[in-house]
Design goal:
The chain has two helices and 29 strands. With about 375 residues, the chain is mostly beta strands. The protein starts with a helix and ends with a strand.
Length: about 375
């Protein structure tokens, strides 16, 4: 008994160091093609760490042209697309706002819900909170929680019928729901647990489709009316997905779980595997997210992918991987946990840059050297 205890104690550091080898912040691979510079720092984001939840390009009636919004759970910072100078900030530090936001969960996103030029704040769900919409003064407009025992998994917005008015779609343990801009339930597309949802511009369809992932890892494609267009079940173990326009047509990005590694896999909209790359030494738990970024107007787009650790023993991390147009891994870095990934196409010139958050303290800009 005592010998077993001694062996266990002596081996614990070795096991933990093996489990988390490479799982610390910093650049892990760099072929010298990517340049990294700070776009925003802690001071601009309010002086204290606020984990970045989303970075997006927005436009509103109160501001001419486009700007970048950096969203956290307690603050939104608006900055110039050209030079990242701060334009405005909205704070959620007041107690009543914090309480409302905690009830609505995580994943804030700015959206013009009623097409009036003013931006509302969509709370997309996560953790144990519900989903809903706040106005520009942070006043609750509506919330949606179909099951009083289980929170919704995710809410997104889109315009599937292309009539100029957006709808909201909710993935829930009880099914898949369609709401209008006022939060009124329009239709229930399906029953059963829906884990994740996205909207895709299918080149074979006249209008966008809603892609839903069931609890049994089956993809289902729906049109605006709720009709099932197609379905397929990949032979992989995964729990979330994203849509990326890389190499060209829209494809489905999944993170396949493995032993002490995970794989970034791209499926076409029929379920065929078009890209498969192993990313070792990282305990993938959440994600993935991906974007296609045209670093150079003279080249096809690059692919940026992020995945997240769970952070049971140490602080959670986000791994950023950048692939060349040919699919070669050219850059890999571990950042402090964030969910912010955005392509900035508003700077002078035709080249795009990539923005990624770093625990709210810094937003980094990545470009081609």
């Amino acid at each position: 008994m005592m010998n077993t205890l001694i062996v266990t104690l002596l081996s614990f550091p070795l096991v933990t160091s093996w489990l988390f080898w490479g799982n610390n912040p910093g650049v892990k691979m760099d072929l010298g093609k990517i340049e990294k510079t700070p776009a925003l720092t802690c001071g601009i984001l309010g002086g204290v760490p606020r984990r970045v939840q989303k970075i997006q390009i927005v436009s509103s009636s109160s501001k001419a042209g486009k700007e970048i919004a950096v969203l956290g759970q307690s603050m939104i910072t608006f900055v110039s697309c050209e030079n990242y100078e701060i334009n405005n900030q909205i704070s959620f530090m007041e107690q009543d706002i914090a309480e409302k936001k905690s009830k609505l969960g995580l994943n804030p996103e700015l959206v013009d819900a009623d097409n009036d030029g003013n931006l509302e704040i969509m709370m997309g769900g996560g953790a144990l909170g519900g989903v809903g919409l706040l106005d520009e003064t942070e006043k609750l407009i509506w919330s949606f929680h179909p099951d009083h025992m289980l929170p919704p998994n995710k809410m997104i917005h889109g315009d599937l019928d292309k009539d100029g008015t957006i709808e909201f779609y909710v993935a829930d343990p009880t099914g898949l729901y369609q709401l209008d801009a006022k939060g009124t339930l329009l239709k229930k597309f399906s029953d059963g647990w829906i884990s994740d949802i996205h909207i895709v511009d299918d080149p074979h369809a006249t209008k966008p489709l809603l892609v839903a992932l069931t609890h049994r890892r089956e993809f289902r494609f729906y049109d605006f009316s709720g009709a099932l267009v197609r379905k397929f079940k990949p032979a992989y173990r995964f729990s979330r997905f994203d849509i990326v326009n890389w190499p060209s047509s829209p494809n489905i990005l999944i993170g396949v779980k493995g032993f002490h590694r995970w794989r970034a896999v791209l499926l076409d909209l029929e379920g065929k595997t078009v890209f498969d790359h192993i990313l070792p030494s990282f305990w993938f738990a959440h994600g993935p997210e991906g974007v296609a970024v045209r670093f150079s107007e003279k080249e096809p787009p690059y692919l940026a992918v992020v995945g997240h650790t769970r952070g049971l023993i140490r602080s959670p991390l986000t791994q950023l991987s950048i692939f060349s147009p040919s699919g070669e891994l050219i850059y890999r870095e571990n950042l402090k946990a964030n969910k912010g990934l955005c392509v900035n196409d508003c700077k002078k010139g035709k080249n795009e840059t990539l923005l990624a958050g770093d625990d709210g303290c810094t937003v980094w800009e990545y470009s081609l050297k």
